[in-house]
Specification:
Keywords: Signal. The protein contains six helices and eleven strands. The chain is globular and about 45 Å long. A hairpin with a 2-residue loop joins β9 and β10. The chain has one domain. A seven-stranded antiparallel β-sheet has the order 3-4-5-10-9-8-7. Strands 1-6 form a two-stranded antiparallel ribbon. Strands 2-11 form a two-stranded antiparallel sheet. It has about 200 residues and is α+β, with helices and mostly antiparallel strands.
Length: about 200
């Protein structure tokens, strides 16, 4: 079982770097460089965020978040997506930093985490790779590692990496990629620092 909110499998992180997508940032550049490969020492690229229209804000999901979590989400420098399922919004952990935000929630059956970042690192020797799958209408990587299903894609100028882990490795919902795809499709926009500029809540 996963012990730390917002942590993504190293396999997926390496794939994201190779695919010219975004690796979730560590607390310090030194930690990030040590955790991944020497290639990540290249200067990061900070993507320009395309904030969703105010009309796409899911006020029901935003209201379902605990007050503290909603307050943190509204400070995010990237558009915050969350699963709208009430059991996952009851007591989530949302962490936001300068260039990234993470969402983490656990129920008796599932642990769900989502990393959202506008940082990327382009490796000159590795050409961009188009994901072979489609998630939310975008090219995506869908992988499984030690029973944890992951989907990674980009939208609104931001890279997203969703992880889904079942409490029991033998649980039918985690026997295929169906659940991670379903949860990705359900994700709704609940705001961020750019929501005010887009006409959202202030």
């Amino acid at each position: 079982m996963r012990s730390a909110p917002g942590a993504a499998p190293l396999l997926l992180l390496a794939a994201l770097v190779a695919c010219d997508q975004t690796a979730p940032a560590s607390e310090t550049p030194r930690e990030q460089t040590a955790a991944l490969s020497p290639a990540t020492a290249l200067p990061p690229v900070i993507s320009t965020v395309a904030w969703p229209a105010a009309a796409s804000l899911d006020r029901g999901a935003l209201a379902a978040l605990p007050r503290k979590a909603a307050h943190v989400a509204m400070k995010s420098q990237v558009p915050v997506l969350v699963p709208p399922r009430r059991e996952l919004l009851a007591a989530p952990v949302i962490v936001t930093r300068q260039h990234w935000t993470s969402f983490w929630a656990r129920t008796e059956e599932l642990t769900v985490s989502l990393m959202m970042t506008r940082l990327s690192r382009k490796v000159p020797s590795i050409p961009p790779l188009r994901g072979a799958h489609s998630v939310r209408g975008k090219p995506a990587l869908v992988t499984v590692n030690e029973g944890i299903w992951s989907a990674a894609w980009a939208e609104n100028g931001v890279s997203y990496a969703l992880d889904v882990e079942c409490a029991s490795p033998e649980a039918p919902p985690c026997a295929s990629d169906a659940l991670v795809r379903e949860l990705a499709a359900e994700l709704v926009y609940v705001g961020g620092a750019g929501a005010s500029a887009a006409g959202g809540p202030r």
